[in-house]
Amino acid sequence: MIDNDTLVVFVLAALVLLITPGPAVIYIVARSLSQGTLAGFIATLGMHVGTLVHVAAAAYGVSRLLMASALAFNIVKYLGAAYLIYLGVRSFLSKNEAVISKSRTRKHLLIIFRESIVVNVLNPKTALFFFAFLPQFVDTTNEMSVSMQIWVLGLIFILVGIVSDGLYAVFAGALGDRFKQAGLHYGKYITGTVFTSLGVATALARR
Q1: 135, 59 in Cβ contact below 8 A?
Q2: Which value, to the nearest 10 degrees, does the dihedral of the CA atoms of residues 175, 177, 178, 183 take?
Q3: Per-residue pLDDT for 172 more than 80?
Q4: Burial class (CB in 10 A: 0-12, 13-18, 19+), 183
């Protein structure tokens, strides 16, 4: 088993990293502002299903491919950037989220969940982050295998992330409700601008 001291340090380090605003947090906040707290929670869950994919990649060494190959890294990076820009453009062209009928709400939330997974899976820097971060807390002399230790640490990271990102969703959702009460129906423009900006930033980011 992983010793308690290592787990405490890992949770603290993970918390610091998670509460620092990055692409995932910005995505969740944008969804919460434009479509409410529930949409933010769904985006949070989708993001961390995507995180689960990266944990698996780190555990089984797939991340080494992105670390070693500039071509593989760039392919994933540009796919992710293109997807974010596509989401941004689609948001600009869509009808205001405030007029979505109740009969479409469930389907719409499923779309957000799916999009969040894709956004995080297509983020190569997330894969590199886990490849570099998780092994720092792995003990090669432990009776537990390295891959199992990475899985345990990865799942803990995801649980902490769901809590921290969920809090972002709550606060952003409450702020979004105030905007709507004030008659400011600019949700799709906020979302579109954020997604397009993230896509451009991802495309320009260096390896």
Answers
A1: no
A2: 130
A3: yes
A4: exposed
- In terms of Cα–Cα distance, which of 123, 103, 127 is closest to 115? 123
Interior CA angle at 41 toward 16 and 204, to 5°?
Answer: 60
Considering only residues 179 and 88, tell me which one the structure prediction assigns the higher pLDDT.
88
CB 115 within 8 A of CB 46: yes
Residue with tokens 């994919």: 53
> For residue 53, what are its two tokens?
């994919």
Amino acid letter, residue 34: S
At how many degrees (to 10) do helices 124-133 and 70-93 cross? Answer: 130
Task: Find, among 207, 203, 206, the residue nearest to 85 by Cα.
Answer: 203
- Distance (Å, whole) CA 46 – CA 110: 9
Does the pLDDT at position 50 exceed 60? yes
Q: Which of 70, 96, 62, 80 is nearest to 23 (CA)?
A: 80
